[in-house]
# Entry
Amino acid sequence: MTSEESRRTVLEFLAAREKGDLEAIRRLTTEDLRWDPPGPDFEPVEGRDEVLAFMNQAGAEFFDVATMDVDIHKIIADGDTVAIVQSMRCKTAKGADYSNLYCWVYTCADGRVSRMQEFTDTKRFDEIVNG
# Structure
C-alpha cells in the first residue's frame, strides 16, 4: 500500500469507530487484527472479534464513551504504517475529568488495518481513572 492509501484507510477506520459503525469497522480491519494496548497491565489482543470486544469492554469500563472528544494533532504515513498523535478528553466511568495524549501506530495490509499499537502516559491514566 502507498502511504496515502494507508492514511486514507486509517482515517476511514477512525471515522467508523467514532460513529460506532461496526459494519465499516469490520470491513476496514483484517480478521487477524492485533491490538497492543499500552503498559504492562495489558497483553496484546489478537483476532478482529476479540479486539473489538475487548476495546468496547475496556472503553465502557474506564470511560463515559459518550463524552469522548478526540483531537488529532499529527498524522505521519510511511508505506503501510500510519502514526497518529492525538489528545483525548472525556469523563471517566466514575465521573472524573480525563485528558491524555496518545500515539497510535497502525499497520495496514491489503487496504485494511491489521495492527494497532497504542502508546500513552499510563501513570496519568491510572491516577485519573483509578485514583
